[in-house]
Amino acid sequence: MSRLLKCGREAPARRKLGSEDLEAIRSRLEAYLRERQLRFTEPRWKVAESILLSGLHLESRDIVSAVKKRDPGVGEATVYRAIRLLCDAGILEESHQSASGRTVYEIADDEHHDHILCTDCGEVFEFHDEALESLQEQTASNQGFSLVGHRHVLIGKCSFKQQKGKRA
């Protein structure tokens, strides 16, 4: 069942990870920690699992809330350290800045995408546009750069409205 936003638009689908995905990520995290002679701990995994199961774009304070809901015994400092560790391990990545200027995190993904942030509801929509990607490459080249990456966030007000039960 889809979730409707205040404007009447359907909320974007959440990224769903299955048990095989979680096991693969857990193995990656264990290997990363072993290489650095760090311990794999349940509190670290609870932080990772809370993020992975949400499938959302989350600010650190949202991650703290999600972890606390699952296990009140995990301290806030542990959550913040785990977020940094998960980013370093390539499991989590900084996505963009929220409208309030806070860093938003998402599950690291091999498939490149950009974001549209709705200032009305705060929802984050992912998109990929090949024409935009080509234009960015061309622009970088014209300026004498070889593009190695980018973060593209469009910020806007939702123009999707419902009028008398019909979409405009």
Jot down its keywords.
168 residues, Dna Ligase, domain 1, three-stranded antiparallel beta sheet, three-stranded mixed beta sheet
Summarize the structure in words.
The protein has 168 residues and is an alpha+beta fold. It has two domains: 15-110, Winged helix-like DNA-binding domain superfamily/Winged helix DNA-binding domain (Arc Repressor Mutant, subunit A), CATH 1.10.10.10; 111-162, Dna Ligase, domain 1 (2-Layer Sandwich). The protein has five helices and eight strands, in the order H-H-E-H-H-E-E-E-E-H-E-E-E. It has helices at 19-35, 42-54, 60-70, 76-88, 130-142; strands spanning 58-59, 92-97, 103-107, 114-118, 124-127, 153-156, 162-163, 166-167. A three-stranded antiparallel sheet has the order 1-3-2. Strands 5-4-6 form a three-stranded mixed sheet, with no helix packed on it. A hairpin with a 2-residue loop joins strand 7 and strand 8 (166-167). The longest helix is centred in the first third of the chain and has 17 residues, at 19-35. The chain is globular, with a radius of gyration of 18 Å. It starts with 18 loop residues before the first helix and ends with a strand. The mean pLDDT is 87.
Largest sheet report: 3 strands, antiparallel
Let me know the average pLDDT.
87
How are helices and strands ordered from N to C?
HHEHHEEEEHEEE
Q: Provide the β-strand percentage band.
A: 15-25%
Could you give a short description of this structure?
Helix content is 40%, strand content 18%. The chain contains 5 helices and 8 strands; from the N terminus they run H-H-E-H-H-E-E-E-E-H-E-E-E.
